[in-house]
Amino acid sequence: MDTLQTLTSTFAHAGQVTWIGVRPARMQPLRVVDTVQAIESLGLEGDRYASPDGKRQVTLIQAEHLQTVADLLGLGEIDPGLVRRNIVVSGLNLLALKGKRFRVGDALLEYTGPCDPCSRMETNLGKGGYNVMRGHGGITARVLRSGLIRQGDAVTPENE
Predict the structure, then answer these.
(1) CA–CA separation, 106 vs 9, rounded Å?
(2) Which of 31, 27, 20 is nearest to 120 (CA)?
(3) Are 39 and 45 in contact, with CB atoms under 8 Å apart?
(4) Alpha-carbon dihedral sign for residues 64, 68, 70, 76
(5) CA angle 20, 23, 27 (to 5 degrees)
(6) Residues with Cβ within 8 Å of residue 119, at least 6 apart in sequence
(7) Per-residue confidence band for 1, with pLDDT thresholds at 50, 70 and 90
(8) Sign of the dihedral defined by the CA atoms of residues 153, 33, 85, 146, in that order
(9) Taking CA atoms, which of 1, 63, 119, 125 is between 20 and 30 Å from 9?
(10) Beta strand 15-22 with 31-32: parallel, antiparallel or unpaired?
(11) Once rounded to an integer, what is the mean pLDDT over residues 73-92?
């Protein structure tokens, strides 16, 4: 029988970056980009949350959760920019990265916590948007090693 450590370190396959956005200023729309530079101990270049040693330097959300949010709102799909996360990842359970370091493209990140929704979700997604996002908001991370992140890049847990 596998140990809990083995189980929590085993992933079916890598995830993939499907969308990238940076938040240039408070209350401003996200700027969608094909690539972004992650800067060690700071965050993403051009993002307003880039700050030394912050725990919310990068926010990530699962593409599968965006579809769930759209379904719960009765919509076919939603624009990833509405949920104000930096990186959309498909094919990997981001919550399984808890307590782990992981690679996104050339950058090394570290899970810092869940990314709970803010009141802005009610405005961006409509009535009930805040509650729909609960449990589907993704994760926050800090940048441990600088590197370029591109659409299509792999997202992989670091070997322990």
Answers:
(1) 21
(2) 27
(3) yes
(4) positive
(5) 140
(6) 130
(7) confident
(8) positive
(9) 63
(10) antiparallel
(11) 95
Which sign, positive or negative, has the C-alpha torsion 14, 20, 24, 27?
A: negative
Q: Which pLDDT belongs to residue 102? A: 97
Q: Is 110 in contact with 160 (CB distance < 8 Å)?
A: no
160, two tokens: 């322990």
Q: What is the DSSP letter of 149?
A: E
Pull the structure tokens for residue 80: 């990833």
Q: What is the CA radius of gyration of the chain?
A: 15
Strand locations in 41-153 (E): 43-44, 58-62, 87-90, 101-104, 107-114, 139-145, 147-150
- Read off the tokens for 119: 């009141």
Round to whole Å and give the CA distance between 53 and 65.
28
Which residues, listed in sequence order, are joined to residue 31 by a DSSP beta bridge? 22
Residue 107 scores a pLDDT above 70: yes
Nearest CA to 148 among 103, 110, 114? Answer: 103
Residues 85/44, Cβ–Cβ less than 8 Å: no
Paired with 114 in beta bridges are 139
Q: What is the pLDDT of residue 99?
A: 92
Q: What is the pLDDT of residue 133?
A: 95
